[in-house]
Amino acid sequence: MDFSPSPRAADLTERVRAFLAEEVEPAEPQYHADLAEARARGEAWIPLPLIEELKAKARERGLWNLFLPKEHAGEYAARFGTDGGEGLTNVDYAPIAELTGRSAIAPLVLNCNAPDTGNMEVLLRYGSEEQKRDWLEPLLDGRIRSAFTMTEPGVASSDATTMEATAVVDGDEVVINGRKWWSTGVGHPDCKIFIFMGLTDPDADRHRRHSMVLVPRDTPGVKIERLLDTMGIYDEPLGHGEVSFTDVRVPAANIISGPGEAFAIAQGRLGPGRVHHCMRLIGLAEMALELACKRGLERTAFGKPIINLGGNRERIADARIAIDSARLLVLNAAWKLDVGGPANALSEVSQIKVAVPNMAQQVIDLAMQIHGGGGLSSDFPLAAAWTAARSLRLADGPDEVHRGVVARIELGKHGAKR
Amino acid sequence: MDFSPSPRAADLTERVRAFLAEEVEPAEPQYHADLAEARARGEAWIPLPLIEELKAKARERGLWNLFLPKEHAGEYAARFGTDGGEGLTNVDYAPIAELTGRSAIAPLVLNCNAPDTGNMEVLLRYGSEEQKRDWLEPLLDGRIRSAFTMTEPGVASSDATTMEATAVVDGDEVVINGRKWWSTGVGHPDCKIFIFMGLTDPDADRHRRHSMVLVPRDTPGVKIERLLDTMGIYDEPLGHGEVSFTDVRVPAANIISGPGEAFAIAQGRLGPGRVHHCMRLIGLAEMALELACKRGLERTAFGKPIINLGGNRERIADARIAIDSARLLVLNAAWKLDVGGPANALSEVSQIKVAVPNMAQQVIDLAMQIHGGGGLSSDFPLAAAWTAARSLRLADGPDEVHRGVVARIELGKHGAKR
Amino acid sequence: MDFSPSPRAADLTERVRAFLAEEVEPAEPQYHADLAEARARGEAWIPLPLIEELKAKARERGLWNLFLPKEHAGEYAARFGTDGGEGLTNVDYAPIAELTGRSAIAPLVLNCNAPDTGNMEVLLRYGSEEQKRDWLEPLLDGRIRSAFTMTEPGVASSDATTMEATAVVDGDEVVINGRKWWSTGVGHPDCKIFIFMGLTDPDADRHRRHSMVLVPRDTPGVKIERLLDTMGIYDEPLGHGEVSFTDVRVPAANIISGPGEAFAIAQGRLGPGRVHHCMRLIGLAEMALELACKRGLERTAFGKPIINLGGNRERIADARIAIDSARLLVLNAAWKLDVGGPANALSEVSQIKVAVPNMAQQVIDLAMQIHGGGGLSSDFPLAAAWTAARSLRLADGPDEVHRGVVARIELGKHGAKR
Amino acid sequence: MDFSPSPRAADLTERVRAFLAEEVEPAEPQYHADLAEARARGEAWIPLPLIEELKAKARERGLWNLFLPKEHAGEYAARFGTDGGEGLTNVDYAPIAELTGRSAIAPLVLNCNAPDTGNMEVLLRYGSEEQKRDWLEPLLDGRIRSAFTMTEPGVASSDATTMEATAVVDGDEVVINGRKWWSTGVGHPDCKIFIFMGLTDPDADRHRRHSMVLVPRDTPGVKIERLLDTMGIYDEPLGHGEVSFTDVRVPAANIISGPGEAFAIAQGRLGPGRVHHCMRLIGLAEMALELACKRGLERTAFGKPIINLGGNRERIADARIAIDSARLLVLNAAWKLDVGGPANALSEVSQIKVAVPNMAQQVIDLAMQIHGGGGLSSDFPLAAAWTAARSLRLADGPDEVHRGVVARIELGKHGAKR
User: Fold this and answer.
1) From which residue to which does any coiled coil extend (chains A, B, C, D) (predicted)?
2) Whether residue B288 is found in the same domain as residue B402
3) pTM for this structure?
4) Is residue D236 part of a domain?
């Protein structure tokens, strides 16, 4: 159980820390001001040039595509600018993801943003040479963005097998129909490619019925119906969309890894993706705790810093304990993934998917409370942080489903069939 | 300990229920659609005519100003349209407030909206004849709205005695300076009068230093700097404002109940106001629980209604228990206020101020979770409801301050000085 | 919703309070000392004479059998010494039960101790004239005690229909076989009669299969196998026993209300019984909170009373809120029982059965913590109190079963079949 | 951050696992039966021969004194039978301590029982050659036992500087007076030596006033007043005593590390001791979770294994997450101790001291609930386990004090003085 990053990863972590401190953090106030202005003009969905400038700087420093996994990165890390020319293990990448999680823009700037990272991993591991050339390379290059269209408005997303959208093979084409929502990233004008998940063969085994298909955004029949908010927040310019697919036809070669492979791919995609999400939330929780400490020490009431009133210090202690526990749990899941792959870390990945967003939600709520009314407003990053943590209790599977996985594995140790 | 409403109150409650079902609920989808459109046009701060139409209907049915307290309503209940011509006790009003709390617009429609109700109570109990004529009557008439400017951005609002804004008597005028925020209602064009709270005599006893002053919105030196959001929500067209006061001069006759009386007034104002807030949150929590039950029964996953999966039914039970406990606690506080006034209900009012928003936040969070991603979006009223509950853990005193009051009273029973 | 006791009940409550203060509390240290000595001598199962003396005094003051329910007490309240000669409603009895709950011996002293009260209610409501004469009257007289043998070691007690013990009618006899445990009271030498619950007709409807049978303790084939402890506590001299029944034969006339009626009777028995348990736990929690306040004010650390350290005052506030909420919830269940009987209060009784023991467990845990190591020892009544609260999360149906009832009723409002 | 044990430690862990499975577990039923019988005879304080037999077997296998810390073990590991002849790091020892924590007797059998381990560490690190010869060696040999007398009945133990017992230097003697309680181990007839902590110089700096003195149990003036229970449990034959010291005189050479050094020593003693306690509690929680899974799968109600009812599976998942988080947190504290000593792990040790006992208490409570009434009785090891976890929320500093340490360090990062 060794959670130490390699020397190269430790070096990259320090360089990311420096880059964030020198370039990203100083730019954030401007970014938020520009975004607010753009919103007021109704132009929030047009990406701000600031991000592209920062992306160029990150790439120049070799802090680019750091998410690329050691075992699959192959030639790509070298070709697309990751310093050192190879990918990182999950344990290596963890502290980097945590650092980027503190910032609203860092993941974008380092080309390490969900859902693109997950989509790139899918192509890396399961894509054909053509699929890699056409879509993976421009994504690694930061020229285009992508979306993953899986969740549907009409069915409970906790059970993916209930999905109703279809991807029917018709000769050398696939015909796609259905409606998806919470498709993150579709608001961005550079979002050129969707990975669509749909039902191909209703008669196959339960986990062999669905396929993943690459659908270029401009294919006829694809329509972005609207962009959804979470707690009033639209996450421009990426956004979360509701998308309809009406008799959309793409070549059968766009199916990733063949018909019926969607669940097999999802299994591989979601493990590291969930670890990344959780790592970033750890960073967010750390940021919230820092703000809470600072505010609590600065403001006074009844003649004392408010941090010294009532149970506030105990809450700070509980938050520290909760964050440190959660980080260790994430590192453990990362390490289990590293040493044995997704099948080795089923329980551990579900454990963090339950534990970390709940922890972050609670720590951020505490920070809000210490900030008073302002803590709920856009004056502080806490409302957005809370929303991110809360959303993650649903995205990539609700808490309840992941608790189910952990329980199934635990009871399996004692002979339970399921 | 008798929590039964009077026969007249029971009748009014049923009539409010019918009015909401017949007029308000059917109008709400239109209201939300109109508001969304107005927002898109940048005109969300212009009140929608729908509200005025519904106000007229409510008044016609005598369901108007029902918040008026029995012991202070005097002639006003009769003059301003409350059916039966007299005010209600807190116990009587409780189930009515709960019903209105389920709806985003019902409180406005019945002229029972915070902060106007609290401001009207202040004028009713402490206002001079001129103050009543000039400001209370148009408020009761629903012609104008009002704001209460107390919280300040620069100091911890948990300790009101740290307030830095000033209200200095200068001959027959008061000179007002300072900056306030979270002044609810100032976004509304009909908001014509502010009750300003500021420091008058720094050398007086700690709770005799501050005054409340009536400041007409259009007085020179009053400036609404901006409108604040909570979790991305602006609560248009009332809104929560940041307001600066620069050498604002009003007649000394605008001081309510004389210089140095602000805390005495606040004590009287906040008791019933907190009870009303809590009652409305009970309604909100009931609404959320209903939505959770319905959604949980409708949607299926793994071959079952999702309500039957994992711990969901236990969560429904816990929510029912939590709501019923909280309602009883609120009724108890209302009853204590009714039989002995604010001094008799200090602990009870603080108890509900802690217990109810926390309960509501949790029940609404559960309802969100059962709704999946949609539960966080504007497709459902849950995000707004959560924000309302969360805000109330800060507004009118943070949880921690109210726990402090409850503890002080409890320990006082065993001889503790404070 | 009127939770006020009748004037007679209010008077009895005050007289109970006075009796406890004058006679019972002063005797408790002696009682505990005598019991400890008896334990050391291995004679803890021999009742101490002190209790009989106090019983006589209670009876003399008319504070006897106060549990007798208004609607079923009939002649018995008058015949067996309850002052005023009639029974009390649940709302009337609530504050009395709360007072007795504070004391380890008061319920016994007032002849209001479980399980005898529940057993007496069964006989009162469902017993034949002979059964009343033979068993109810001596119980009301305080001459004998009784036990209720229902839970079995071999099956999950959460589902009573899985019970395996049998009560087979054989001509004019009933033949009883099986093993029961957690039969409270069987340790007491005066415990002369058991109400046994067993399977009579496996082919009947699920809730018509079982019968309740009166089994005198000295019937051949009845054997008390051992006495069980909860957290090391044996609750001498009543105790909780494991009892075997081997070919035990009693007259068929000993069946209460006829074969197959056990569940119908249990339904009626358990409602008020659960309310009484919860009322007493409220008293226990109040006692714990008082001890916590006193200890927290007396002891100092780091130069302050420990109650002023960290989050302790907030915990006191939370405990006060929790107790007051719980009491109101119990009063509400009592009132619902009073106005409409058990069928009217199904959810409410299950609500308190969940809420109150959990609340008490938590408040007592807090009191323990404030007492330091001593709080866990026999030097304070907290360990016994905690054990009582914890046990009640299982006795009379575990939390989970009661949450199930509340959920079923809640979801039933929205059309769910079960 | 490397939590992997050394190969030697991994081997020892497996050998401890085998020894427990082959020798200790099979002996436990007999041990508990013998103890129950001894209790019934009033002879529970006489150690059972079984333990001595098992000790001999453990020693034979080299599984003896495994607690000995690598950096201080010196010659002792080799001389007193630890296989391999050297001590273990905290990370190495962690999984061994976890295994022993599952058993009520394993720590004793392996000579790794508190408080002896802590006392031996004190002597190892701070003892003079004579002190080591006279007391450390027989302790390492398992011939005698020891006690640590620090907590006092008269003052809050959360603030050790309030201690009132005295250790006054008088020429070449120390005169000891005062009363201690919760002195673990004094019930055992082999307990021959006490480490006494008392006030030597009231005028010194706050943390330089107290001394630790070796007081042989048979010194005149030492009196064991009584043995205390926690939740009815006496932990025979070690026990927790209340001990009075009246004009007890021992040579000044019995002071450990010189007058005024008590806090410096305590600091060094308590770090690893707390880690050991927490490690053992992890084992206890694992044991409880296993029992919960097994019972939940075996028992049925309403036609299903009870583990599949309501929220039970979610509780199993939450328990697994909680245990794994807690174990990682303990390993982290152990690792910080290993790499930088106590000063490097102040926050981490306090973190686990808060997190682990609370976690264990909750997991064990869940296991109790799944066992029904039996879970609270002596039929299962859960009541004793719960008591152990609950006690640890007070022993070695209450939760609140440790939260205070964590908060102080956290706020110190932001410039807070304390």
Assistant:
1) none
2) yes
3) 0.97
4) yes
